[in-house]
Amino acid sequence: MSARAAVLGRIRASLGERDEEAAREAVARRLAAHARNVVPTRAQVDRDTQVGMFVDQITATHATVAQVAEENAVPAAVSAFLAQHNLPAEAVLAPDVANLGWDSQPLLQTRTGVPVEADQVGVTAAFAAIAESGTLMLTSGAGSPITLNLLPDNHVVVLRRSQITGTLEDAWDALRAEGGMPRTAMFVSGPSSTADIELTLYLGAHGPRRLHIVLIED
Amino acid sequence: MRATSHLFKDNVAKALADADLQTALYRVDKNFTARRTAAVTALPEFEALRDDAVRIKDHTLAYLDLYLETFERNVTAQGGQVHWAETPDDARRIILDLCQAAGARTVTKGKSMIAEEVALNPFLEANGITPVETDLGEYIIQLADEPPSHIIGPAIHKTKEQVSDLFHEHHRQFGKTQRLTEGGDLVAEAREILRPRYLAADVGITGANFLIAETGTSVIVTNEGNGDLTQQLPKTHIVVASLEKVVPTLEDASTILRVLARSATGQQMSVYTTFSTGPRRPGDPDGPDAYHVVLLDNGRSKLLGSDFQDILRCIRCGACFNHCPVYASIGGHAYGWVYSGPMGAVLTPAMIGIEASHHLPSATPFCGRCEAVCPMRIPLPKMMRHWREQAFDKKLDTVRQRWALKVWAWFAKRPRLYRRITRLAVRYLAWRGRPRGRMSDLPLTDGWTASRDMPAPQGSTFMDQWQTGRRP
């Protein structure tokens, strides 16, 4: 007998007698319904309040936010962030953010694609953001290399105001509408951190030391 | 690991005498409990979320076979593979086969209690594969060659000085000869040492906080991002998880996530919560080429429908550790196996046998704090009592304990006699405790009086007070 059959057999033996057809139906119904459980009401508010809630919460987790009026102001905001932290004027761009008019920053060297170990700055787009907990939702895909979210010391995320939703459940609905699960969906609430030495918080454990969000007022 | 749970009393004596450990445990108690309380009070729906979380897991367990089949089907549909392991030995062999098929020489690992449960690292090492732990806490205890002492903070028992010593000793081979003393410098050095290991690894192994049936997804929750680098950089991602991690839908995982981080560290969400579904897709510029899930049973299927089924709801948040007066006194290693704290006192006997671990469910004052803070409302004290019954039935406790219980039971079943005897005992003890109101020795209680005085009873017995209308 295969391990699979043995394990499933033991589970069934432990669960005891049941109406098999009704059981399968109950499971199928549950899976198809995507029913929401209790959802905190805090983030079920209008968009303006959600935007404020998102910014407040993600900055509380040591991320920084710069707001810009339109998308062609993003490159200047990225340059300003690099200058502020004395970083070299170089960035690796996700294809999703490659056409934001980077020519406006002639001193900023950009490359599009996946990062290598030496790269200091990655710029990516977000899929959505969750106001309830101050969380970015980043998905993998042809236009969004997942390692750009992880390898460079500095991670800049371009987020549109219209992408900010209330809750995780809202984000799942949006993702299902776009065709379902990507290989990776990362929920990021702040820069990488650890408290594994004497429960003291240190930033930049393995992932980015800095997380900077450029928020477009679209 | 070789269990030392049968040596519990010796382990406890050592732990109580370890000044560094006592300092570390004081830190746990002070930090985690306050953070959890703050996070829980800030969310009005917290209790309702707990109720839903319990319902979700109970529902899933009632149809566990069907949800696991659905999970497997969806993993396969996304190009991944599910492997079933009945025993730790099966799990180790499956993982080794996968590593060898990938031509692996080094593997990076995200934090996984299941990998600890099956003792994966020594097995890989014995077969010529170098496992590299990447969670900072796990990395520290890997260097120290110790098991984790807490499920979410494996190295919380280590002081900064001890970490400094370990890094100084083990990082010399990488040209790091300077001894570091600042926490931030230690974190930075570990980061620098581990970076090339991530990039060189052929296989990345992570655990799973959830498996999602609906989509065939595995979920990990970290603050460091190590689990992400571990799974995204190598060509092969292996997830090792136990059966009961499965939940039906993304919505269900979202609900439990809301109680998980708050109960664990007092965060609303951990820094990284990552949902992984299959290998990289056509057109994806990065991510692993292969995705495997090793599903471990190791006795869990037999806990279903038993007195211990509720422990399968456990989401490994560590809240019961942080609120346990016993854990706060002795730490995790004294429990002598992979899992410690109240949940370990319930799970360990199920995995290594009550014969080898009957001290664990006895090491409790039954204060009930663990159950009170458990986000999944697991009746831990009740299950410890079930184990104690089994230990008694199997005659695992000492002759003296058994006789004491038998004598007590004989009296307890004769209420009138019991009351008369206790009335006499109260008077005798009050007289004996004069004039200090306590006594420093008493027959049959040397375990208690060796390190503290026994207080003398004040006034009459509980039953007498009750009958005269006094309600304590």
Helical stretch tally of chain A? 5
Main sheet makeup of chain A: 6 strands, parallel
Helix content of chain B: 40-55%
Inertia-based shape of chain A: elongated
Strand percentage of chain B? 5-15%
Helix/strand-derived class of chain A? alpha/beta
Structural features, described:
- The complex is a heterodimer of chains A (about 220) and B (about 475).
- The longest helix of chain A is centred in the first third of the chain and has 14 residues, at about 20-35.
- Chain A has helices at about 5-15, 20-35, 45-60, 75-85, 170-175, and strands at about 65-70, 90-95, 110, 120-125, 130, 135-140, 155-160, 165, 185-190, 195, 200-205, 210-215.
- With about 220 residues, chain A is an alpha/beta fold.
- In chain A, β5 and β6 (about 135-140) form a beta hairpin.
- Chain A is built from 5 helices and 12 strands.
- Helices cover about 30% and strands about 25% of the residues of chain A.
- Chain B is α/β, with parallel strands linked by helices and about 475 residues long.
- Helices cover about 50% and strands about 10% of the residues of chain B.
- Chain B has helices at about 10-15, 20-40, 45-60, 65-75, 90-100, 115, 120-125, 135-145, 160-170, 185-200, 225-230, 250-265, 300-305, 320, 325-330, 340-350, 355, 370-375, 380-395, 400-410, 415-430, 445-450, 460-465; strands at about 80-85, 105-110, 130-135, 205, 210, 215-220, 235-240, 245, 270-275, 290-295, 440, 455.
- In chain B, the strands form 3 sheets. Chain B has a 6-stranded parallel β-sheet, with helices on both faces. A 4-stranded mixed β-sheet of chain B has the order 8-5-6-9.
- In chain B, a hairpin with a 4-residue loop joins β5 (about 210) and β6.
- In chain B, α3 (about 45-60) packs across α12, α9 (about 160-170) crosses α10 and α16 (about 340-350) packs parallel to α19 (about 380-395).
- Chain B is globular.
- The model of chain B has no long low-confidence stretch (mean pLDDT about 95).
- Classes of the chains: A alpha/beta (about 220), B alpha/beta (about 475).
- Chains A and B meet through α1, α2, α5, β9 and β10 of A and α2, α3, α4, α8 and α10 of B.
- β9 (about 185-190) of chain A pairs antiparallel with β9 (about 270-275) of chain B.
